[in-house]
Amino acid sequence: MRLIEKYATELPSILSTVRSVSVREPYAHWDKLRHLDPPPPLSHEQWWLAIKMERMIQFRRLPLRDPGGRPFVYTLPDPVLSMLHRIDNRSSGRVELPNAVTTKENRDRFVFNSLVEEAITSSQLEGASTTRQAAADMIRQHRPPHDTDERMIFNNFRAMESLRELRGKPLDLEALLGLHLTLTDSTLEDFAGAGRLQAVGEKRVEVVDNLSHRVLHTPPPAELLLQRLEALIGFANQNGDAEPFVHPVLRAIVLHFWLAYEHPFVDGNGRTARALFYWSMLRQGYWLFEFISISRILKQSPARYGRAFLETETDDNDLTYFILFHLRVILRALEDLDTYLQRKTEQVRSVESLLQQSDLNHRQIALLSHALRHPGHEYTIKAHQTSHRVAYASARSDLLLLTERGLLQQRRIGLKTLVFIAPEDLEQRIQSR
Predict the structure, then answer these.
(1) Which of 24, 144, 424, 432 measures 20 to 30 Å from 3, CA to CA?
(2) What single DSSP character describes residue 102?
(3) What are the φ/ψ torsions at residue 266 (nearest 5 degrees)?
(4) What is residue 1's predicted lDDT score, i.e. its pLDDT?
(5) For residue 80, which phi and psi values (nearest 5 degrees)?
(6) Residues 411 and 290 both lie in one domain
C-alpha cells in the first residue's frame, strides 16, 4: 500500500490520533471521506491510511477472487452485526405472521403478490417499461405477454415461482443455466443467448455507464468462467458447518455480488443475481423472504445500488460496502412488510366493526368475517346450515342476500348445487356500502 511507505515514520502517531476520535461516517469510501474534515492534525490521506489499516486487521477472506488472484474480503463492523441480528429475529426460525396472513388463502395471496412485485420491479431495474397494473393483470389473468417488456416480467415471475421448488435442492451449473433460461426466454436480441454462458473468444459484455459511456466493470475472461462458477456453486451449497463460517444472510448477499461480478451471460445477469439471492435465503430457512421484494427497494435508488458494486471494486475488493448497502435494503423491505401487515390487520378489524353495525344477522356477519381472511373460499347452503344449525331456507336466504348486495359471488355446479365465493376485494366492497 503506497500510503504506508509514504507515512511509515508517522504511522504510530496517525493510528493513535484516529483511535482517540470517533469516525463520523461508518465505513465511508475514500470518495466520500475526502470531502469530510479529518481529525486534526491529520491530512485526508493520513486519515484514510489509518482507517484502512484498522480495516485490514479485521478482513475476512472469501473464495471469490479477481482475475489477478486477489481475494475479495469483508469485515464485520458493528452496523453489520446489528443488522444481521435484526434480520435473524424478524425473518427465520419460528417467527409468526399476524392473523391477517395465517390462513392458507391469505398466505398464498400474499406470496403471489410478492412474486408479482419482485417480477415487475426486478425487470424494471433492467429496463422493462410497462405499467405495474398492466403487468400484474397479465400475470393474474394468465394472458400471453404482448411485447418483450411484458415477456421479461412474465419470465421473472416464472423464475421466482421456480425458486420455491429449487430451494430444497443444491445448486449446480444446470440449475443456474436453467434459471437464466427461464428469466431471459424470448427476450434477448439473440434468442440463443438464453441459458448459455458466454463462449471463449466471444467479446465479454461489459458494464457501461449509460450517461458517460464509461466502462464500469470488465468481467473475468470467458475461458475462466467454468472454473470460477464451480467455485461460486461450491460456496452456494456450503452449510453452516463450513469453515470459515459465513453468516447465511451474508452468504446470500455475496452470491448476489459474485454472479453479477462474473457476468457470465450476454444479458440478464442482474436478474439472475437477484434470483440467486432469493434462492439462497429460502434455502437457508429465511422463509419470510417469500413475502418481500428487494428489487422494489433497489428500484428506488438504482444509482446507490450501482455505487455499492463500484465501491467494492475500487477499494481493494472490500465487499463490506456492498454488504452494508444490501443489509439496509433487506431491513427496508422487512419494515415495509411490517407496515403493510399492520395496515391490513387494522383494515380487517375496521371492516369487521362496520359489519357489526350493519343490518346483517349474526350468521352473515360470521361468514363475512371468515371470508375476509379466506379470499376465494367457497360456501354452500348446506355447509352454512350445518355450521349455524338453522333451517335450509334460512341458510339459503342468508347467502342469497349477501350475493344480492355484492358481498359474495355465486356460481352453479351442475344442475342444482349453488356455490358462493368470497371475492378477492371483499374488504373494499364492504367499505363502499
Answers:
(1) 24
(2) T
(3) -70, -25
(4) 62
(5) -65, -50
(6) no
Query: What range does the domain containing 167 cover?
Result: 63-341
pLDDT of 264 over the 90 cut? yes
* 366 shares its domain with 261: no
Cβ contacts of 427 within 8 Å, gap of 6 or more: 347, 348, 351, 372
Closest by alpha carbon to 263, among 207, 317, 208? 207
The phi, psi pair for 85, rounded to 5°, reads -60, -45
Q: Do residues 183 and 155 make contact, with C-beta atoms less than 8 angstroms apart?
A: yes
What is the rounded CA–CA span in Å between residue 30 and residue 128? 34
What letter represents residue 11's amino acid?
A: L
Using CA atoms, how far apart are residues 141 and 358, in angstroms rounded to an integer? 34
Sequence-distant (≥ 6) Cβ neighbours of residue 35 within 8 angstroms: none
Q: Identify the band that residue 433 occupies on the pLDDT scale cut at 50, 70 and 90.
A: confident
Cell of 60: 475476512
**Sheet with 378-380, side-by-side order of all strands:** 378-380, 417-421, 409-413
In a domain? residue 232: yes
352: left (phi over 0), alpha (psi -120 to 50) or beta: alpha
Whether residue 350 lies inside any domain: the answer is: no
Q: How confident is the model at residue 301 (pLDDT cuts 50, 70, 90)?
A: confident
Burial status of residue 346 (CB atoms within 10 A of its CB: 0-12, 13-18, 19 or more):
exposed
Residue 420's pLDDT is what? 94
Closest residue by Cα to residue 60 from 323, 283, 278, 260: 323
Q: Which of 13-17, 282-286, 405-409 has the lowest mean pLDDT?
A: 13-17
Indicate the average pLDDT of the chain: 87
- pLDDT at residue 101 is higher than 60: no
pLDDT at 106: 66
The CATH number of the domain holding residue 272 is: 1.10.3290.10
More confident: 204 or 25? 204
Task: Clarify whether residues 291 and 423 are in a common domain.
Answer: no
Residue 127 lies in a domain: yes
- Residues 28 and 174 placed together within one structural domain of the fold: no
Bridge partners, 409 (sequence order): 421
What pLDDT sits at residue 410?
A: 93
User: Total domain count for the chain?
Assistant: 3
The reply to whether 67 and 54 lie within a common domain is: no
How far CA 141 is from CA of 114, 144, 416, in Å, comes to 16, 9, 29
| Residues 161 and 186 reside in one and the same domain | yes
